[in-house]
Amino acid sequence: MFVMGNFINALAHVIGFALSIYMWMIIIRALLSWVNPDPYNPIVQFLYKTTEPVLYYARYYIRRLFPPLAGAGIDISPIFVILLIYFLQIFLVRTLVEFSVMVR
Description:
Blueprint: H1 2-32, H2 42-65, H3 77-103
Helix pairs in contact: 1-2, 1-3, 2-3
Protein backbone atom coordinates (compact mmCIF):
# COMPACT_ATOMS: atom_id res chain seq x y z
CA MET A 1 0.00 0.00 0.00
CA PHE A 2 2.92 2.35 0.65
CA VAL A 3 3.98 2.07 -3.00
CA MET A 4 0.47 2.90 -4.23
CA GLY A 5 0.35 6.00 -2.02
CA ASN A 6 3.69 7.20 -3.40
CA PHE A 7 2.53 6.52 -6.96
CA ILE A 8 -0.66 8.55 -6.50
CA ASN A 9 1.29 11.36 -4.84
CA ALA A 10 3.79 11.46 -7.72
CA LEU A 11 0.95 11.34 -10.25
CA ALA A 12 -0.73 14.30 -8.54
CA HIS A 13 2.47 16.34 -8.70
CA VAL A 14 3.05 15.49 -12.38
CA ILE A 15 -0.54 16.48 -13.21
CA GLY A 16 -0.09 19.73 -11.30
CA PHE A 17 3.13 20.47 -13.15
CA ALA A 18 1.56 19.69 -16.54
CA LEU A 19 -1.40 21.95 -15.73
CA SER A 20 0.99 24.77 -14.79
CA ILE A 21 2.90 24.42 -18.04
CA TYR A 22 -0.34 24.41 -20.05
CA MET A 23 -1.58 27.49 -18.20
CA TRP A 24 1.62 29.34 -19.12
CA MET A 25 1.23 28.23 -22.72
CA ILE A 26 -2.28 29.75 -22.75
CA ILE A 27 -0.94 32.99 -21.24
CA ILE A 28 1.91 33.20 -23.77
CA ARG A 29 -0.49 32.56 -26.63
CA ALA A 30 -2.81 35.32 -25.40
CA LEU A 31 0.14 37.71 -25.18
CA LEU A 32 1.33 36.73 -28.66
CA SER A 33 -2.07 37.60 -30.08
CA TRP A 34 -1.36 41.24 -29.21
CA VAL A 35 1.87 41.47 -31.25
CA ASN A 36 1.01 39.56 -34.46
CA PRO A 37 3.87 37.00 -34.45
CA ASP A 38 5.33 35.24 -37.48
CA PRO A 39 2.94 32.32 -38.17
CA TYR A 40 5.79 30.24 -39.64
CA ASN A 41 7.84 30.34 -36.45
CA PRO A 42 7.99 26.77 -35.06
CA ILE A 43 7.42 27.95 -31.49
CA VAL A 44 4.32 29.92 -32.49
CA GLN A 45 3.03 26.94 -34.49
CA PHE A 46 3.59 24.63 -31.51
CA LEU A 47 1.74 27.00 -29.17
CA TYR A 48 -1.19 27.30 -31.56
CA LYS A 49 -1.42 23.55 -32.19
CA THR A 50 -1.35 22.66 -28.51
CA THR A 51 -3.71 25.34 -27.23
CA GLU A 52 -6.20 25.70 -30.08
CA PRO A 53 -8.32 22.59 -29.32
CA VAL A 54 -9.04 23.74 -25.76
CA LEU A 55 -9.54 27.38 -26.72
CA TYR A 56 -11.83 26.40 -29.61
CA TYR A 57 -14.21 24.54 -27.29
CA ALA A 58 -13.94 27.28 -24.68
CA ARG A 59 -14.90 29.89 -27.28
CA TYR A 60 -17.83 27.76 -28.41
CA TYR A 61 -19.30 27.38 -24.92
CA ILE A 62 -18.53 30.92 -23.81
CA ARG A 63 -20.22 32.40 -26.88
CA ARG A 64 -23.29 30.30 -26.16
CA LEU A 65 -23.42 31.58 -22.58
CA PHE A 66 -22.25 35.15 -23.21
CA PRO A 67 -23.01 36.53 -26.67
CA PRO A 68 -20.22 38.81 -27.93
CA LEU A 69 -20.69 42.49 -27.28
CA ALA A 70 -21.09 44.71 -30.32
CA GLY A 71 -17.69 46.06 -31.33
CA ALA A 72 -15.78 44.30 -28.54
CA GLY A 73 -13.05 42.26 -30.20
CA ILE A 74 -11.75 40.81 -26.96
CA ASP A 75 -11.52 37.03 -26.65
CA ILE A 76 -12.13 36.06 -23.03
CA SER A 77 -11.83 32.31 -23.57
CA PRO A 78 -8.20 32.20 -22.29
CA ILE A 79 -9.39 33.66 -18.99
CA PHE A 80 -11.98 30.91 -18.59
CA VAL A 81 -9.46 28.22 -19.53
CA ILE A 82 -6.99 29.59 -16.97
CA LEU A 83 -9.73 29.58 -14.32
CA LEU A 84 -10.58 25.98 -15.22
CA ILE A 85 -6.92 24.97 -14.97
CA TYR A 86 -6.65 26.72 -11.62
CA PHE A 87 -9.76 24.87 -10.41
CA LEU A 88 -8.27 21.55 -11.52
CA GLN A 89 -5.02 22.35 -9.73
CA ILE A 90 -6.87 23.06 -6.51
CA PHE A 91 -9.49 20.33 -6.67
CA LEU A 92 -7.93 17.42 -8.58
CA VAL A 93 -4.32 17.69 -7.48
CA ARG A 94 -5.10 18.34 -3.82
CA THR A 95 -7.66 15.53 -3.79
CA LEU A 96 -5.08 13.11 -5.21
CA VAL A 97 -2.46 14.21 -2.69
CA GLU A 98 -4.88 13.76 0.22
CA PHE A 99 -5.96 10.38 -1.17
CA SER A 100 -2.34 9.29 -1.39
CA VAL A 101 -1.91 10.11 2.30
CA MET A 102 -4.99 8.06 3.16
CA VAL A 103 -3.72 5.08 1.13
CA ARG A 104 -0.43 5.01 2.99
